[in-house]
Amino acid sequence: MKARIKWVENVMFIGESGSGHAVIMDGAPEAGGRNLGVRPMEMLLIGLGGCTAFDVVHILRKGRQEVRDCEVLLEAERAESDPKVFTRIHVHFVVKGKGLAEAAVERAIRLSAEKYCSASAMLGKTATITHDYQIVESD
């Protein structure tokens, strides 16, 4: 896996992935930015959410659960002094589907958190990561 980061101006950078996608990273105006892109630490949190959402949907579908939607809401706290690592992350899943088995949803979240999600494994070295979920019946 490769990535390339290119400085644009002030505190704005463009990140390019090895798969050919790009994202703008920028700082807040008080930090010299124009607020035109996501902050790097926000990208880490988004990466965690994407990684675990991918796992949960994949595990549920593989288990023949009729999952129709999955939303992951994350809240994080960071250390007050440098390096300002994440110290606490809460991951809330809203899983929608038809007749979803609660045990299957719990299992999918647990497997992602404990076995499959690389982002969880890395961020879990500095942060306490907690999870909860809501199942919404959907046609």
Automatic annotation (TrEMBL):
Family annotation (InterPro entries): KH_dom-like_a/b, OsmC/Ohr_fam, OsmC/Ohrsf
Organism lineage string: Bacteria, Pseudomonadati, Pseudomonadota, Gammaproteobacteria, Methylococcales
Top-level taxon of the source organism: Bacteria
Name under which the protein is recorded: OsmC family protein
Organism: Candidatus Methylocalor cossyra
Chain segments annotated as coiled-coil in the UniProt record: none
Signal peptide (UniProt feature, chain positions): none
Pfam families, alphabetized: OsmC (PF02566)
Residues that span the membrane, as ranges: none
